[in-house]
Amino acid sequence: MPETNAPIAKRVAAASVVVALVVLAIKYVAYVLTGSVALFSDALESIVNVVAGLIALWAVTVSYKPADNDHPFGHTKAEYFSAVVEGALIVGAALLILREAWGAYLEPRAFKAPVEGLLLNGFATLINVGWAIFLIRFGRQHRSPAIAADGRHIMADVVTSTGVVLGLIVAAVTGWTILDPLLAALVAVNILWEGARVVTTSLSGLMDEAIDADSEARVRETISCNAEGAIEVHDLRTRLAGRAMFIEFHLVVPGKMTVAESHKICDRIEDALQDIFAGARVLIHVEPEDEAKQTGVPVL
Questions:
Q1: Which fold has domain 213-298?
Q2: What percent of the chain is modeled with pLDDT above 90?
Q3: Per-residue confidence (pLDDT) for residue 2, from 0 to 100
Q4: Cα(34)–Cα(115) distance, rounded to whole angstroms?
């Protein structure tokens, strides 16, 4: 997985704010045209997208600061805090939507200009589809939790927006105005679920979650194929901190091997791992052969 540079990541985060503002404006006009509380809830969620985009921009900027005396392992975990705050904002928006839905349930409202409003909302949803796909792919490719979380949130917005548009079409055709607050309530429940998922994912990162099983298998294979001259590798541990990956293990070598020779093996393994996982931080503890456990990574 490639390591992106700070200017590109910050430009993507800044562009996300601009896109969110454009979508918010379009959805708000759709709400004003129709008076629909469901479209109001959709516009309200877009406000969350704007705030979340600003927080993601801050987090990405901080995460690319170089390591210093107070933060010797860097600032990459800042992106997780962004995702946690975004989850909290989603919960707040859901509660506001439920309040509006309850008011509309008690006092049903007739639609105004439903065709124009729904067309505008559909156009805003198409913008979100394209941008969400881009953000999710970019976030995964460059291991950016903040940008990936922003993309997942926008994709959740796409799902709810589509449901709202389809439901309001039914309501406009049938005259069942009760569908409007019910759809708004469903939007609230859906984004509550998305908020919980964003927070859970971020907390996993803050708790130093290990890399996924497929990536760990590649780490083991890479070590095994590049540790010629060593006896074994054991106590392999991995963790993620934002886009940074940390790989630690013990390398057992013959007791008579010189420091220079063991250092060459370490360099070879480290270079091979960083060719596959760009920017990976590799820590190798060299041990003599009497420390072998015969339970780790075999050397090919």
A1: Alpha-Beta Plaits (3.30.70)
A2: 19
A3: 45
A4: 9
